[in-house]
Design a protein that fits this description.
It comes from Tetraodon nigroviridis (Spotted green pufferfish). The protein is built from 7 helices and 8 strands. By secondary structure, it is α/β, with parallel strands linked by helices. The chain has helices at about 5-15, 40-50, 95, 110-115, 120-125, 155-160, 190-205; strands spanning about 25-30, 60-70, 75-80, 100-110, 135-140, 165-170, 225, 235-240. It is globular. It has a domain at about 25-175 and about 190-205: Rossmann fold (3-Layer(aba) Sandwich), CATH 3.40.50. An 8-stranded mixed β-sheet has the order 6-5-4-1-3-2-8-7, with helices on both faces. About 30% of the residues lie in helices and about 20% in strands.
Length: about 240
């Protein structure tokens, strides 16, 4: 007769070895705003931890992702950076807005026109069923260019309050600390805080349901991939 203790240990070992691995939650965050406001630099800074050596205007969609740890749970953050120019957006806008969990609106603090465009971007989100129930934040980029600022904090904060969004002012380029040790508002260290704030909010309200690849990339959309995934977690896509 088999030893009952040995049998129990074998069963426990067998059951534990056949358990599926924990499912990784995936949060799709879209980053939108006018061309040239620094969307690509912000997403690159967060995913690669540095400012890109050179950038070009996004043609189509830049897709980056980063795996983060929040209270012991692995969360995959997917950042979708789309072209700000309408002629590059028409063929993919429907897919871009599909299964979105949060929206980051970006403007350039040195370009008042990019700030005035924000209502149009908010309206586009509404047209694709992304209302106030979807977490949204407002980011003023390029705060390191102090002598060229056209959009003041007070004006931006009033706009953010009107649209029920928190406001972050930052720079994807510089990392500055004030004399008292606190972060300068133009510090790139704020970029980490921006996206981690969104991730924490999503983790607290989203159930454990997402583990599939990003909307079936490459298989169900009319986009073509240009090269393999890069070391910084970037995939570049353009009109197919």
């Amino acid at each position: 007769m088999a030893d009952s203790g040995t049998s129990g240990e074998f069963s426990a070992s067998l059951s534990s070895s056949t358990l599926p691995p924990p499912r990784t939650r995936i949060f799709k965050i879209i980053v939108i705003g006018d061309s040239g406001v620094g969307k690509t630099c912000l997403t690159y800074r967060f995913c690669a931890g540095k400012f890109p050596e050179k950038t070009e205007a996004t043609i189509g969609v830049d897709f980056r992702e980063r795996l983060v740890d929040i209270d012991g749970e692995k969360i995959k953050i997917q950042l979708w950076d789309t072209a700000g120019q309408e002629r590059f957006r028409k063929s993919m806008v429907q897919h871009y807005y599909r299964n979105v969990h949060a929206v980051v609106f970006v403007y350039d603090v040195t370009n008042a026109a990019s700030f005035r465009s924000l209502p149009a971007w908010i309206e586009e989100c509404k047209q694709h069923a992304l209302g106030t129930e979807v977490p949204r934040i407002l980011v003023g980029n390029k705060c390191d260019l102090q002598d060229s600022i056209q959009v003041g904090t007070e004006v931006a904060q009033q706009f953010a309050d009107t649209h029920s969004m928190p406001l972050f002012e930052t720079s994807a380029k510089t990392s500055n600390t004030q004399k008292d040790g606190t972060l300068d508002r133009g510090s790139s260290d704020h970029v980490e805080a921006i996206f981690m704030t969104v991730a924490h909010k999503l983790r607290s309200q989203k159930p454990l349901v997402l583990s599939q690849p990003a909307d079936g990339l490459g298989g169900t959309v009319s986009l073509s991939s240009h090269g393999d995934n890069k070391a910084d977690g970037t995939r570049s896509w353009a009109c197919g």
